[in-house]
Design brief:
Elements: E1 5-9, E2 21-26, E3 39-44, E4 47-52, H1 68-78, E5 82-91, E6 101-103, E7 106-110, H2 137-149, E8 154-155, E9 159-163, H3 171-180, E10 184-186, H4 189-198, E11 202-211, H5 224-260, E12 263-266, E13 274-277, H6 279-282, H7 285-299, E14 306-310, H8 313-325, E15 328-332, E16 342-349, E17 352-359, E18 368-376, H9 380-391, E19 395-404, H10 410-413, E20 419-424
Parallel strand pairs: 1-4, 1-5, 5-11, 6-8, 7-9, 9-10, 14-15, 14-18, 18-19, 19-20
Antiparallel strand pairs: 2-3, 3-4, 5-10, 6-11, 12-13, 16-17
The protein binds adenosine monophosphate.
Adenosine monophosphate (AMP) is lined by residues 273-276, 310, 313, 349-350, 373-382, 410.
């Protein structure tokens, strides 16, 4: 697998040498001419990024003159698998307010003088790129998650109409665009999205609403000063959103690396079972740190009283996480191991029948409990453990696993509780 690289187009503010590790500027040329700006390369959260300022470093390139082909080609050539774009848009809907973010899912291309294809000749046969869903769902999901996390007012979908510019629309045009079903309007996204799709690079846009175009009679018609003013107020938010998206890619990479360290032993302890062995992951100090950090980040704000670990690998995880979070530790054990008074629960395992026990005095009513185990298969063990916790009137904050085997539908048995797993083995 090639190294993950993310392209960023816009005036995002991320091209700051203080933000990027290994900051470099790179002058490049492409078969389609020069991109809008030098490429700024560097790392964010350990992920390689390549940044282009769409309108040039000093906003000297008008929309019609932006060399989208060179921009997209340059990012593709650099090895970017994803492109995140930022743009300012005018709102064509009452409910899309100034300062709101729109995570675009459709465009209408109303440009007239743009070069919007890499396929000027059908040298190697006809190519008509599908464009029904031009924005990457994976990137859109990440942008939406980031907006929700920061509580930024946002719209999960939106159709942008891209006009030629550089002038703004007439009122008649603005009314017409509303009738056509467009939600927001700008001068840059459609050609860029088209070319990114042709180049097979996943592409999505975070659009910041700066004005109400000119359809709204109780509002001033849009002006460039108005756009600049709102952009200035919101640029930090855009930066935060993009940083969070890159961070989530970095997290995905970490999880992917952790997964590579899990050993699979076929036919253990019974034929047909693919045993996922985390001892190969846990023996390495870097991996342990990463694993516990990931759980810590998720649970640090949740005011957990105690972590209940399921014997035996769940104990190791519960112990480390309880130490890190500063919570209590509760043991859920196989039968006959606990010395004081217990309650028990019988359940079916992926390979047999078993039961789990807990000391009667290990949880006080109302305590917030996080249940943890190495793996959820059929969900029998965790389901029985939840029953024990609830029998003692503990409140289950979440059931947490390093590994989930979604094919075995264990989550269904835990449908009443929040469930979180870091790594999935599906159809493997
Ligand atoms: P289940 O009750 O079916 O969800 O099984 C989960 C429990 O069994 C966990 O404590 C796991 O440690 C263990 N387990 C079940 N299947 C596997 C597997 N394929 N690899 C490793 N451990 C497993």
């Amino acid at each position: 697998m090639g190294k993950l690289k993310i392209g960023i187009i816009g005036g995002s503010g991320l091209e700051d040498p203080n933000l990027l590790d290994d900051y470099k500027e790179k002058e490049v040329d492409t078969p389609f001419g020069k991109p809008s700006s030098k490429l700024i390369t560097g790392k964010l959260f350990g992920i390689d990024v390549v940044i282009i300022s769409r309108h040039g470093k000093k906003h000297e390139i008008p929309p019609t003159q932006v060399n989208n082909k060179a921009n997209i080609f340059a990012l593709k050539y650099e090895g970017c698998k994803y492109i995140l774009a930022t743009t300012a848009v005018g709102s064509l809907r009452e409910e899309i307010k100034r300062g709101d973010f729109v995570i675009l899912d459709q465009f209408i291309d109303f440009t007239k003088r743009r070069d919007v294809t890499f396929y000027d000749k059908f040298e190697f046969g006809a190519i008509h790129t599908p464009m029904a869903n031009p924005f990457s769902e994976k990137l859109r999901k990440k942008l939406i998650e980031a907006c929700s996390e920061f509580n930024f007012s946002h719209h999960k979908t939106g159709t942008v109409i891209t006009i030629e510019g550089s002038r703004f629309s007439t009122r008649a045009e603005s009314y017409m665009f509303r009738q056509w079903g467009a939600d927001v309007i700008n001068m840059s996204i459609a050609p860029e999205a088209i070319l990114a799709n042709e180049a097979e690079v996943e592409y999505a846009t975070i659009a910041m609403t700066t004005d109400y175009d000119c359809w709204k009679n109780d509002e001033e018609p849009v002006s460039w000063e108005m756009v600049k003013e709102i952009m200035k107020d919101n640029v930090e938010k855009v930066k935060k959103i993009l940083l969070r998206v890159v961070e989530s890619f970095s997290r995905e990479e970490e999880i992917r690396k952790l997964k590579e360290n899990i050993r699979t032993i076929p036919d253990f302890p019974k034929p047909g079972i693919m045993f996922r062995d985390i001892t190969t992951l846990l023996k390495d100090k870097e991996n342990v740190k990463k694993l516990i950090d990931l759980f810590y980040d998720r649970y640090k704000e949740m005011e957990i009283d105690a972590i209940a670990g399921i014997e035996s690998r769940g104990f190791a995880l519960a112990g480390m996480l309880a130490g890190r979070l500063g919570t209590g530790l509760v043991l859920i054990r196989k039968p006959g191991k606990l010395p004081a008074e217990t309650i028990s629960e019988v359940y079916n395992l992926e390979y047999g029948v078993d039961s789990v026990e807990i000391h009667k005095d290990s949880i006080s009513p109302g305590q917030k409990i996080l249940l943890i185990d190495d793996l959820i298969a059929t969900g029998g063990t965790a389901g029985a453990s939840c029953k024990l916790i609830e029998a003692l009137k503990g409140e289950i904050v979440e059931c947490c696993f390093v590994i989930e085997l979604p094919d075995l539908k264990g989550k269904e048995k835990l449908a009443r509780y929040p469930v979180f797993s870091l790594i999935k083995f599906e159809g493997e």
